[in-house]
Design brief:
Radius of gyration: 20 Å
Strand order of the largest sheet: 1-2
Order of helices and strands: HHHHHEEHHHHHHH
Distance between the termini: 5 Å
Number of helices: 12
């Protein structure tokens, strides 16, 4: 099995298809994406083993978004039933949970490595009158720790980005799914970077536009109430590209 290599213009197609799915079922798409983000945030905030619990949910949540986007694109309402089906299937549940274990390993390594590498710089941050002194933060920012953490996190994302779908839809073994997910992302790094730049750029433009308009109208304190629904929409757009990416790279490829 070998995935396709996306073209330079593929990110535009991914965004267009994701937006088409949102247009077909706006409330359903926003619902499943915000549910995924909220669940991951709540689980990740649990004491002691929160990151591990969130990592176990990640493959199931990813399939919820991928399946939901496909349903919306085909004119149906996204359903949460896929979560029930995956949990009821012992074979798929076991494989998806093992993907979660690998994702958890990357998260834990990134998290604890950051703590270990950044402890000296962070200890020099100063708190004045109960507020963090940002000059001390800028002067002692743990750049090395941040870079290493981002690299490890990115590797974990690459290894598990397509793995849930490869396990569920291609009946692929976990190690093999991790391998093909990683190299599928690596082979398409340029298209993925372009997509991230487009999403980031559009997000910044929207935020700046809202702040400018609300400040011009003298209602800057209310900007958060405008930014929040925009953030929900942009989050949905970002997650809505996963299924088009999958279709473009692995969708019509038969497993060995």
């Amino acid at each position: 099995m070998q995935g396709h290599i996306a073209s330079f213009s593929s990110p535009i197609k991914w965004l267009r298809q994701g937006l088409s799915a949102i247009r077909q079922a706006p409330f359903g798409m926003v619902s499943i994406c915000i549910f995924y983000v909220f669940t991951m945030s709540v689980l990740g905030a649990l004491p002691m083993f929160g990151l591990v619990v969130a990592a176990f949910f990640m493959p199931f949540g990813t399939m919820l978004i991928i399946e939901g986007t496909r349903e919306a694109y085909e004119g149906r309402q996204p359903s949460y039933g896929v979560l029930v089906e995956l949990f009821k299937d012992p074979f798929k549940r076991s494989r998806l949970m093992r993907v979660g274990v690998i994702y958890a390993a990357f998260l834990l390594v990134a998290n604890y490595l950051y703590i270990f590498m950044a402890v000296d710089e962070v200890s020099q941050w100063q708190v004045v009158d109960g507020r963090l002194n940002w000059d001390s933060v800028y002067a002692n920012f743990p750049w090395s720790a941040a870079v290493v953490t981002v690299i490890i996190y990115a590797l974990g994302q690459m290894a598990t980005w397509f793995a849930p779908a490869l396990v569920t839809w291609k009946n692929m073994a976990v190690v093999k799914a991790i391998f093909y997910s990683f190299f599928g992302c690596l082979r398409n790094w340029l298209a993925i970077v372009v997509l991230l730049i487009l999403i980031f750029g559009f997000t910044v433009l929207c935020a700046l536009a809202v702040i400018f308009i609300t400040e011009s109208l003298g209602i800057g304190d209310l900007s958060i109430f405008v930014l929040m629904p925009i953030a929900f929409f942009l989050t949905t757009v970002a997650y809505g590209t996963i299924w088009p990416m999958w279709v473009d790279i692995f969708g019509d490829v038969n497993a060995d």
